[in-house]
Amino acid sequence: MPNGGGDGEVVHGFPHLDTVRASITALYRRLSADGVRRYATSVAAADVAFDDEDDLHLGAQRVARALVHHLRLPEARMIVSFREMRHAASVDLAAGPEYFIELNDRFRSHRGDVGAALAHEITHVLLHRLDLGFPGTRENEILTDVVTTYLGAGWLLLDAFREDPVSRQKLGYLTPEEFGYVLAKRAAVFGEDPSPWFTSPRAYEAWVRGREEATRDERRPPLAGAGWAARHRYTKERRYGRAAAGLSYTFEGSGPATRVSFPCPVCWQRLRMPAGGRPARVRCAVCGSVLECDA
Questions:
Q1: Residue 1 pLDDT > 60, yes or no?
Q2: Is the pLDDT of residue 192 over 80?
Q3: Kind of pairing, strands 77-83 and 98-104?
């Protein structure tokens, strides 16, 4: 499974947001809320630090072992090698119990990014063992980036993002802002602040933009945190039982609506509740979140 990224043009924004959200839902469905909570602590920067003074192969093996441990793959032994290749990295999923990971030769001189490349590839191994995947190759790669990030290792991929007038680098298939979005989703659940871990100023900027987008998910009607203008629009649409195209919620019944369907802001699972115009609490059956609503 090749890992994309490199020195080409960097795409920004949120073009894959639907797939990103579907990936979070799929992760919670496969692992359960309790399973996701086993990854409440992100991989520590010290555990994956790798600089020019370290032996190339021994250092790569050490970082791989740390990520295997973090992703709870104790039986998976990773053998890491370097060669010239188009992609950043690849892993042979036909192997096992030993898995062979190849890294692009450029990481010989960019050792600080070895952990990022390995995190994506080792997550492929995790997903392979979980039998969790999407049909299309690109969708499956996006799923891998999302799971890497949501389970506490993907901040490395965002920190590998650099962009200046002279050069640019981005690893993975998500945009920098989408990595920031998933990090913010994780941070909201586990109370983490990943900002001190970033060594790349552009990575921090992407995290901030992603956090803003994630915050908007928590302010959509019928959630109680929705703003006045959104609430006013929602109330009017509920009265007629019709939601405008492109909104996250939909109504059942007409004039006025009897029920409303909307996405959980944590895992994006669709929820349904009576549209009675009264405050209520709704529990998501997938991620276990208890939501304050005013439907």
A1: no
A2: yes
A3: parallel
